[in-house]
Design a protein that fits this description.
With about 500 residues, the protein is α/β, with parallel strands linked by helices. Helices cover about 40% and strands about 20% of the residues. The chain is built from 16 helices and 23 strands. A hairpin with a 4-residue loop joins strand 4 and strand 5.
Length: about 500
């Protein structure tokens, strides 16, 4: 049975009217089980008009009332955690525990937003001049929008709309058309939690919808997560239209392994961070950099059998499955081609997962774990973001060479070092030009009360996602100077006022 998905505008499910649809697949079987409408520019405009009309009433809610809506939303997320996770696993392919984690990391941002009354407090200066006070206040942008990717269909939408709504904005969410169910369910839950209809609208679509969002003068801020080329496009077009824009792009995360590292701990970390979610994470470790050939040999000797024994299957196979299929056949073909290129260019494929096949799921997008050794920086598998279950090992002769690899890479999303030496770790933390750093932690994703963001080609914009930066991004500062008539003792003043 094929499901026809909808948009959600003004609190109601609305069928698409453009006549254009995108197939929604079950990645484990390759079968089409849904159709997602692709909005026209006119449909996007209608959603924006609805949001614009609803926003002033929502902004008039005091901050504590808005926080209570978010508090109820958190309760509903706990209630429907498994339902959301099942929808994510069905359309994305990730394992059920991983899908639960997708929801949980979004839920934690919603929890942080319960502190909205504190986070939106302004500043006040008494008696800046005789009889004069000055204060600043944070006010909503108006209508904001989020363009979110397929790999975290619950977490990243919540990273966008939870702080935006908490600040008093209305919001247009344009999620990935590959897994549309979870974003629609989240919007329904926000309305159930007490959000007025029309404040949060979900518009499914492709580039037509994206361009309509970027060009519309009623949208004041846009957040995006996706590949670096598209992040650059969204940032350039959005800022040219006068919007506040933050875009988070691709990654090539390096993990340096020092000779003194606990090799058991290191291998455990690499297995989960490189192959979890089939590598479809912007914070996945893509490159292991052991320092010295002895370190590299010990790493590969311990890592290879672990990769060979990874359990791969559909989410329905149980919670002990390590990872599932890739999201689409196009993704499978692209990653398979990159693995082929690595072999052709001279890297040693220590574990070859290209021949993996799962009985009963021959049409699925399953690729076994692949482990490369002796990768060099001129190879395509090193230069490209693979976004699949493939780990490249680049051997470094010295610590300085290892650091240089991460420093010189065009991306700067995340990085890690595994060592028992505090001095080395401190030096690494200080010198590395990457936004999120782990020490003996393989996926250094900050918690909700800190901010998430990379450097270099991984991030376009000035402010990060979630944490305090989100409340800065989705508000504007207004500074007010007050002097009451009763305090005016003299006549007019014609010179520029200065502090007395």
């Amino acid at each position: 049975m094929t499901t026809e998905h909808t948009h959600l505008i003004g609190g109601k499910h609305v069928k698409g009217t453009s006549g254009r649809f995108s197939d929604v697949f079950n990645p484990a079987t390759g079968e089409v089980h849904g159709k997602c409408p692709l909005a026209s520019a006119e449909e996007v405009r209608h959603a924006i008009e609805v949001a614009k009309a609803a926003q002033p009433g929502w902004a008039a809610f005091n901050q504590q009332r808005r926080a209570r809506v978010m508090m109820e939303f958190v309760r509903l997320l706990h209630r429907d955690m498994d339902k959301l996770a099942e929808a994510i696993s069905r359309e994305h392919g990730k394992t059920f525990p991983d899908a639960q984690g997708d929801v949980q990391r979004g839920l934690e941002v919603a929890e942080f937003c319960i502190a909205t009354p504190h986070l939106l407090k302004g500043e006040y200066s008494d008696s800046v001049s005789p009889g004069m006070d000055m204060f600043s206040m944070r006010q909503p942008i108006g209508v904001a929008a989020g363009i979110t990717p397929f790999n975290f269909p619950a977490m990243i939408p919540m990273w966008k709309f939870c702080p935006a709504l908490s600040c008093g904005n209305a919001f247009i969410l344009k999620p990935s058309e590959r897994d549309p169910s979870a974003p629609l369910m989240l919007a329904e839950m926000m309305i159930e939690a007490g959000l007025p209809e029309g404040v949060l609208n979900v518009v499914n679509g492709d580039k037509v919808a994206v361009d309509a969002i970027l060009d519309d003068t009623d949208i004041g801020a846009v957040g995006f997560v996706g590949s670096t080329p598209i992040a650059h496009y969204v940032y350039s077009r959005g800022t040219a239209a006068g919007k506040r824009v933050q875009c988070f792009g691709g990654a090539k995360n390096h993990m340096i392994v020092m000779p003194d590292a606990d090799m058991g701990q290191t291998v455990d970390a690499l297995i989960g961070s490189a192959y979890g979610a089939a590598g479809e994470r912007c914070m996945a470790v893509a490159v292991a950099v052991p320092v010295g050939d002895d370190t590299a040999d010990r790493l590969i000797d311990k890592l290879a059998p672990r990769v060979e024994n990874l359990k791969i299957g559909p989410y329905t196979a149980g919670n002990d499955v390590d990872f599932g299929p890739l999201v689409t056949r196009a993704a499978y073909d692209r990653i398979r081609g990159l693995v082929d290129s690595g072999v052709e260019q001279g890297a040693r494929l220590a574990v070859d997962g290209r021949g993996f096949s799962l009985q009963g799921y021959e049409g699925g997008n399953f690729l076994g774990g692949c482990l490369f050794d002796h990768v060099t920086t001129d190879m395509e598998i090193y230069k490209e973001e693979i976004f699949g279950p493939v780990l490249c090992t680049v051997r470094a002769k010295t610590y300085e060479e290892a650091v240089g690899l991460a420093v010189d890479n065009e991306y700067g999303n995340g990085t890690a070092i595994f060592t028992r030496d505090g001095d080395t770790a401190r030096d690494f933390i200080t010198r590395i030009n990457v936004g999120m750093v782990g020490v003996n932690v393989p996926i250094p994703v900050p918690l909700a009360y800190h901010t998430f963001g990379g450097w270099k080609a991984s991030h376009f914009g000035d402010l990060n996602q979630h944490g305090p930066d989100a409340f800065r991004f989705y508000t504007r500062t207004k500074t007010v100077t007050v002097r009451w008539p009763s305090g005016v003792k003299e006549g007019s003043q014609f010179s520029f006022p200065v502090m007395e």
